[in-house]
Amino acid sequence: MTTVLRASPRRFVSTPAIERVANRALRYLQSGYSVHLRGPAGTGKTTLALHLADMLARPLMLIFGDDEFKTSDLIGNQSGYTRKRVVDNYIHSVVKVEDELRQNWADSRLTLACRDGFTLVYDEFNRSRPEVNNVLLSALEEKLLVLPPSNSRSEYVRVSPHFRAIFTSNPEEYCGVHATQDALMDRLVTINIPEPDELTQQEILVQKTEIDRASALLIVRLVKEFRVRTGNEKSSGLRSCLMLGKVCHDHEILATPGNADFRDLCFDILLSRSSLPVAETTKILWELLNEAISLGLFEAALNESEPSQAACVMAMVSADVAKPEATIAQAEAITEALVALVEEVALAEEVALAEEVALAEEVALAEEVALAEEVIAPIPQAEAITQALAALAEDVALVETVVAPLTLTTEIALPTASMSPLSVDAVMQEEVTSYEQAIIAYLKQVNGARLSQIEHALELDRFRTVDILRFLQDKGSVMLRDRLYLCTEG
């Protein structure tokens, strides 16, 4: 069974800012369009939707969006069976029995609202999955609600001309909120609901919690400044203000920055509204309360209220603020202690981070050593290569001792400018011949040598040695075998 409500929001607070938004939305509803109120949590969207439904003076159907919703939760579903049995014994010797079994259909809220012309308030509709809300497309545009096929009822419901729909939603970055299909958004008139202004929040606190106006103004300004300093301006602080105001009024707690009970309330209610670390948020709130004492924020709020009320409240506050210097000193001492605690926490975090870095370096070094061992381990020839290198070094030393007496000590005369071309050619030919003879003599003595050994033994440069060896190869005096130059002459 579906319950029909009469919309009458309790003590709706109307200010000029709220009236402007309400009148805009009411124009669209009266013209037959559906309205979508969009804004952060705590800005009064649901309350305004109920107020608009009350102004339409029609019965109300209220639905709350849910991720577990199915289309049947909006339009209805089969709720059971009806069995009909007829026994015909008109002729005593003949018994005729007829059984009939039919499914029962139960309309849900959307179907009832469309058929009977009620006002539908779909609160936080984007918490339902987009495919569930597809049934609204034809109801809002073609004024026709489509139901599942059935033999016992019509598959289409003609939407009443009095039907109106009011939707509310939070921004898509909120947890548990789905993106809305463009086709549905195109059928709605979206009105952004901003954070209520200071006057509106003060009036809401006064009427909802019955707290005095000076205290209400102080709470509104305190919560707003706290949200600004903690970088939490996107969300609304109205609910926090209502909590503070109601508790202060119900338990006769004086809303002054120097009152210890009021400070405790601020910490309990406001600290959880910030995404910053608890120590940093605590420091910000302490500093804010201390500044409110030193700057006389409460007295300024009193001055903005009615004079008679200000005098009455000041008399009540005199016991709590008779010694403001002592209160400020106490608050400053607590603030210093909190600052020291924050510094100790930061130092401990730095030490822990340094230890983690050192441990990571040790682990990386151990991994590199293990990898090097894995790479080196599979080489069984390492010892053999080392022995071969040592033997090669001994051979080089032996060659040096043998070749040392063969080092050329004769200086070759270089050609000068006064020599004739024939003389220069003769000198160069003589020089080449001497190098050829030296190389052949060296190769005969050592019975073959490499190019580097010939260079080292005869103290020749690489280019000259290569040229002479090629010349000797062409003559047939020297041959190259296995990278060793051998003398072919007996």
TrEMBL record:
Keywords: ATP-binding, Cytoplasm, Gas vesicle, Hydrolase, Nucleotide-binding. Belongs to the CbbQ/NirQ/NorQ/GpvN family. InterPro entries: AAA+_ATPase (IPR003593), ATPase_dyneun-rel_AAA (IPR011704), CbbQ/NirQ/NorQ/GpvN (IPR050764), Gas-vesicle_GvpN (IPR013462), P-loop_NTPase (IPR027417). CDD domains: AAA. GO terms for cellular component: cytoplasm; gas vesicle. GO terms for biological process: gas vesicle organization. It is found in: Cytoplasm; Gas vesicle. The keyword Cytoplasm applies. Residues 31-199 form the AAA+ ATPase domain. GO terms for molecular function: ATP binding; ATP hydrolysis activity. Gene3D superfamilies: P-loop containing nucleotide triphosphate hydrolases (3.40.50.300). This is Gas vesicle protein GvpN. It catalyses: ATP + H2O = ADP + phosphate + H(+). Signal peptide: none annotated. NCBIfam families: gas_vesic_GvpN (TIGR02640).
